[in-house]
Design goal:
Chain lengths: ~110, ~110
């Protein structure tokens, strides 16, 4: 039982490049989320999904897009990376009315 | 709106007790608590629901004062393994987590032998 798996774990991008972060969960959870964590800021919600084919904006959605074509996968895309997007990105999933299971994170540096 | 956690940091000796507080200016439906060790993912500790129901899987207790929009996490007889950063996450409505959580900035807990 792998839980929530994020790939890649580390990535360095140049300004303007694009990339996709993959999140996969094997717990059949309905809800999935993408957060970013910056020093002193806590965890901030980027986008979330309440089910296959549905997505919604969170607190800091600008510069990111998401897709949830399959229930177990939630993709986060950066179309044109900026240094302000340097962060640690966490994916999480949850069943209805219970706590989140987080992935191990992706450390992204944009230079 | 981001909940406010206090204290920002606390240093304890092994065996001592700690209380971490989380407060919000808006009405809350539920409060989650997570612990994150350095370089690792946050780990779910407990959820407290409006009406008093608690759900969790660790031997840590918490309270939820709906009138004051506050929650407190109680760590008794602390162990070295309790060290880490504790986050509260708040949910504004009864969506079962659907709208995501708003997290506080965290409380750093250091347990010394």
């Amino acid at each position: 039982n792998a839980g929530v798996t994020q790939t890649p774990k580390f990535r360095v991008l140049k300004t303007g490049q694009s990339m996709t972060l993959l999140c996969a969960q094997d717990m059949n959870h309905e809800y999935m989320y993408w957060y970013r964590q910056d020093p002193g800021m806590g965890l901030r919600l980027i986008h979330y999904s309440v089910g296959e084919g549905t997505t919604a904006k969170g607190e800091v959605p600008d510069g990111y897009n998401v897709s949830r074509l399959k229930k177990q996968n939630f993709l986060l895309g950066l179309e044109s990376a900026a240094p302000s997007q340097t962060s640690v990105y966490f994916c999480a999933s949850s069943p209805i009315g219970y706590g989140y299971t987080f992935g191990s994170g992706t450390r992204l540096t944009v230079v | 709106q981001q909940p406010v956690q206090s204290p920002q940091a606390v240093i304890l000796r092994e065996g001592e007790d700690a209380v971490i507080n989380c407060s919000s200016s808006k009405a809350l439906y539920s409060v989650h608590w997570y612990r994150q060790k350095h370089g690792e993912a946050p780990v779910f500790l407990m959820i407290l629901l409006k009406g008093g129901e608690q759900k969790g899987h660790e031997k840590i207790s918490a309270s939820f004062n709906e009138k004051k929009q506050q929650s407190s996490l109680y760590l008794t007889a602390s162990q070295l393994s309790y060290s880490g950063t504790y986050f509260c996450g708040t949910e504004k409505g009864p969506g079962g987590g659907a709208d995501g959580l708003t997290f506080g900035k965290g409380t750093h807990l250091i347990i010394q032998p």
